[in-house]
Design brief:
alpha+beta, five-stranded antiparallel beta sheet, two-stranded antiparallel ribbon, 9 helices, 9 strands
Amino acid sequence: MNVHGSVRAAVSLAASHGVMCTDPLVLKAASNVLVHLRPAPVVARVAGRTALMRPAVASHFARDLAVSTFLAGRGVPVVTASDELPAGPHTHDGFVVSFSTYVPHDPDVRLPHHDVLKMLPALHAELRHYDGPLPVRGPLDDLENTLAYLRGRAPLEELQAQFADLRSRWDPLDVHPLHGDAHHGNVMVTPSGPVWNDFEDTWRGPIAWDLACAVGSNDEGAAQRAVEIYGGGTAPSDVEFHVELRSFFTTLWGVFKEHS
């Protein structure tokens, strides 16, 4: 992944809109590159490996901005689109870039899983009011795109068999707007309280998917505890299935990183 190129593109694009960065700080370099454009209170999100597995990655960035703007308008604590410059998404020097407001937080502090689960009902209640377009296949699209990218680059027989089995058992009936990646890494701990971040993966799916993201494991009883903490809304067996699906996603992502 071209982290240096991502930083240069973000700094250059910001400068073209009058936001000068003299001390860029890479906050994260994973699926995307997040850069604090110091001294400006702006964070650039630059598509990294996600651009390889998501042909329409700009639409994901646009969804992040649209959903976070909507939630902020309803009083939900979220990372908001930047008002220092056009938030995007933009395409610059071959990179897809968006801009959000920098939120001071402690990156070394993570909320416990049960606290994230306690926060989800309120977030879901607000997301139900969102009437913008949302995908309906969520992680399945990413899995199919990733397998397509890896074809010819990595041995896939076992992975394709696992995916076929999971897809045959995937049958969401009761669907709602979800965060889509509701793990504790996407909740910032700030002096004024927790703040939701990263709505790039928001989609319309079963509540069990967000619970699977938040629960963090499939230890015995974990799904049951997750449902109890959340307050019902789904069956523990559905959470267990979606933990399995998310675990496969993590496995495939590891293979993807090796070959991208």
